[in-house]
Amino acid sequence: MAIPSVSGQEGPAAEFVAAYAQRRGLDVVRDETSVRVSVGDEQSGATLVLASHLDVVPPGDGWTRDPFAPVIEAGLLYGRGSGDAKASVSAMLLALTDVAKGGGPKAGRVLAIFSYGEETRSATMPEAVKRAGRLDAALVGEPTNLQFAIAQRGLMMVDLVARGTQRHAGYAADGAPNAIAALAHDLVKLDGIVAERVHPVLGATTVTPTMLEAGISRNVTPPVATAILDVRSTPAWTHDELEVALRERLVSEVTVTSKRLVPCETPANSRLLAAARAVAPDAMLYGSPTCSDWCFMRHLDAIKVGPGTSRRSHTPDEAVDLAEVTAARAFYANVAERYLA
């Protein structure tokens, strides 16, 4: 954590992780996509991925401590990235050393993938996954308080654009279209606009306006009004289906600017979930509202689980409970042992 690794500046942190793993005799590949650390033989059985990311968001304002001078107070480790997601990275890396000390998995391979740029649009996990060989299952390390996220919302970003006639506002009574008024009519439709499909874990897809832009002067009717919509999807809809539905139900122009962060869910009869529940039978199952690199491994048997509290992510004075990190270390190693037995 004392190595700043804001997105795009992960090099020193990646070098540290790779060197740490090499000193402990683990197999290491470091390239422009990730640091990949493994133990076992992919030819002898399944591969279980321990996946997390090395980058952190910028520290921002409001800190009462130096964000990159980690300090422990009352069992909490403070610093940027403490929970999101260096706690998961640390626990996964140490779990790999524990598996190696125990002679390695009985069959197959445990592979950690520590990617870059997860907090940005330039996530390297998709390419890292392509380079990693055959993969069967994944534990995605994000702050969940070691509860099991068995579904995760996706994210689709949409520009909603209404058009009108630019003219002196004094002539508004003439009935020329006003872009702001047209956009407002669509905005009031958004609550529950695609709520007819309800996912059993995540509920309904939400469509939330987050930014507005309109107007060129206080006495001129606007020719254009734009809203940015944050669409938090569920597996009940594909992003293509959502795009069609929004176009049909709204009058304004709908332009999808991003739909690569697809929703995910753990498959029915998941062998990985069975192994995880055997290790931690009291863990709660829930649906995660936040995105992660899971969307790039949605074809695998996967769950999202890691130490830390999601609501502390990206906040000033971010912190993680060190006891949880220790518990995560044992959890990851024990699940690997069971899954690859």
Q: First CA to last CA: what distance? A: 34 Å
Strand order of the largest sheet: 1-2-6-3-7-17
CATH architecture of the largest domain: 3-Layer(aba) Sandwich
Main sheet summary: 6 strands, mixed
Radius of gyration: 23 Å
Overall average residue pLDDT: 96
Total individual domains: 2
User: What is the strand content?
Assistant: 25-35%
Text of the CATH class of the largest domain: Alpha Beta
pLDDT under 50 segments (min length 5)? none
CATH topology of the largest domain: Aminopeptidase
Overall structural class, as computed from helix and strand content, comes to alpha+beta
Shape: elongated
Characterization of the model:
This protein has 341 residues and is α+β, with helices and mostly antiparallel strands. The protein has 2 domains: 219 residues, 3-Layer(aba) Sandwich (Aminopeptidase), CATH 3.40.630; 108 residues, Alpha-Beta Plaits, CATH 3.30.70.360. Helix content is 26%, strand content 28%. It is built from 7 helices and 18 strands. The strands form 5 sheets. It has a 6-stranded mixed beta sheet with strand order 1-2-6-3-7-17, with helices on both faces. Strand 1 and strand 2 form a beta hairpin. It is elongated, with a radius of gyration of 23 Å. The two termini are 34 Å apart.
